[in-house]
């Protein structure tokens, strides 16, 4: 259970949003919607702990997140706008290093299986420089397949993906929710996910 | 600890794939050092006197070259966010990056310095002291530099600003480092200088990752 | 017991600073007049250094002030980091130009003093060199904080620079001193005027007080400008009498 109480965010001297409350129970999703500049990314970054909220606080399993940041981080997977892919490393290296930094090292066979499932079979050892935008996105999404994090925070996960990849990502998200995972994401398009969830609208 | 090793390995791997960046700094070091005899004249007594200072100043400047990119690429491609969200404290991962930076930009200078010292007619003993002083001093440059690199992350004109912030803080390392070699050449013994350099290094290892982490959090916010 | 935290809010500090700064400015003028009178007309001519020594009445207090202001900046930085108050960052930013000015003044008067005494505009004396590095530290702080657009971010980054700097200042001073003795630099020091007469001490103290008052007045005046600049959206700024025109 992830709960937010009265979150507010300032950018410069402008208040982007205030009084944002929500609760995401286990196995459910929350889609953050709103026009450009409404503060969707800022909200996700605040929940992930990358940015500080001007007001309000977060609770994870009934405990204030600010008091147990490292434990919260261990249960969290965040994918931002930038895919966190190093151009000079191969897809396999990128995936393995990202997993090690996130505290859950992967062995090579698991990582290879994930890359194959996400549709990068045969390209595991190419430097990411030669991959297309959508393929780089897929490398980042392969992290979802290997992740054991309970809470996924995804910023525009469907951007730059083709139809087949969108379907595949939906399947991956459904599996995560079915395992009792939580999902917080932004998207400009309507997304059909199994299970229950809601949406949060920012900006009037 | 795993994440620390992963960061060091990743940065070394990246440096190995982009050898030109490491080599550029190294060539810069060589060229700057070689310019001094050309500007001052080849008189050996004079060269022996200026050698410690010249080698150390050139090492400062060469170490500065790669500082710009220490966090900038990680910031751009989103890796820094992932590091900040790791269950391993960010300060530990920053230490890993500093260690990798030293291995790729400081250690080569240490290894190359004696060869360049020969151009200045330094004795074998002085060359040894020079190497030890650089071995103790170049990690200080990486550590202090990391604070500056983190502070100027995403700031207009970051490169020039970085040198303005960092170079004054390098002065103690320069004084004790070059002083050690000078003292040895003068027959005074370099022990005092080297232990002070070691003390600075201990202080830096303790303090700098913490300050750099605080600065990175500001840049991420 | 005064509630200090009340004045930590820019809205209540702004009018307080407005009331205080003219008093400090007046005190600065008075002390400066008295100090200059003593240093030019009362203090005796030094038998070794002649009339030229009188520049130390400016030089020494300026050096003290430049070092002290850096420590005050670091103090505000520490407060800002611990309590996350907006005003402390503004105070640091307001103090920096004054500190840089005193560092520059100290270098300039040092050079003016050095020419007749040492026969050179610049000598690598340990104190002068440290002062030069301190000047660089001020410049670094000012350059960094003015290069960052978001004022809150600029304050936080500036706070780290000030704290890192204040840890380094003693190390730098010590290392420069060590370097100086190794190289047997100038042996005459500006402050080691042989057996300082009491009138000279008085002059110097009065000038130091004048510089204190000037720094307080200037930083209060400047912090008012910074508050207005940053809070111009806030309701209380629009209600100020000076905004009613």
UniProtKB/TrEMBL annotation, chain C:
<dbReference type="Pfam" id="PF01578">
    <property type="entry name" value="Cytochrom_C_asm"/>
</dbReference>
<keyword id="KW-0472">Membrane</keyword>
<feature type="transmembrane region" description="Helical">
    <location>
        <begin position="55"/>
        <end position="79"/>
    </location>
</feature>
<dbReference type="GO" id="GO:0020037">
    <property type="term" value="F:heme binding"/>
</dbReference>
<feature type="transmembrane region" description="Helical">
    <location>
        <begin position="132"/>
        <end position="148"/>
    </location>
</feature>
<feature type="transmembrane region" description="Helical">
    <location>
        <begin position="91"/>
        <end position="112"/>
    </location>
</feature>
<feature type="transmembrane region" description="Helical">
    <location>
        <begin position="20"/>
        <end position="43"/>
    </location>
</feature>
<keyword id="KW-0813">Transport</keyword>
<dbReference type="InterPro" id="IPR002541">
    <property type="entry name" value="Cyt_c_assembly"/>
</dbReference>
<dbReference type="GO" id="GO:0015232">
    <property type="term" value="F:heme transmembrane transporter activity"/>
</dbReference>
<keyword id="KW-1133">Transmembrane helix</keyword>
<comment type="similarity">
    <text>Belongs to the CcmC/CycZ/HelC family.</text>
</comment>
<dbReference type="InterPro" id="IPR003557">
    <property type="entry name" value="Cyt_c_biogenesis_CcmC"/>
</dbReference>
<dbReference type="InterPro" id="IPR045062">
    <property type="entry name" value="Cyt_c_biogenesis_CcsA/CcmC"/>
</dbReference>
<feature type="domain" description="Cytochrome c assembly protein">
    <location>
        <begin position="13"/>
        <end position="183"/>
    </location>
</feature>
<feature type="transmembrane region" description="Helical">
    <location>
        <begin position="199"/>
        <end position="221"/>
    </location>
</feature>
<keyword id="KW-0997">Cell inner membrane</keyword>
<dbReference type="GO" id="GO:0017004">
    <property type="term" value="P:cytochrome complex assembly"/>
</dbReference>
<feature type="transmembrane region" description="Helical">
    <location>
        <begin position="160"/>
        <end position="179"/>
    </location>
</feature>
<keyword id="KW-0201">Cytochrome c-type biogenesis</keyword>
<keyword id="KW-0812">Transmembrane</keyword>
<protein>
    <recommendedName>
        <fullName>Heme exporter protein C</fullName>
    </recommendedName>
</protein>
<dbReference type="GO" id="GO:0005886">
    <property type="term" value="C:plasma membrane"/>
</dbReference>
<comment type="function">
    <text>Required for the export of heme to the periplasm for the biogenesis of c-type cytochromes.</text>
</comment>
<keyword id="KW-1003">Cell membrane</keyword>
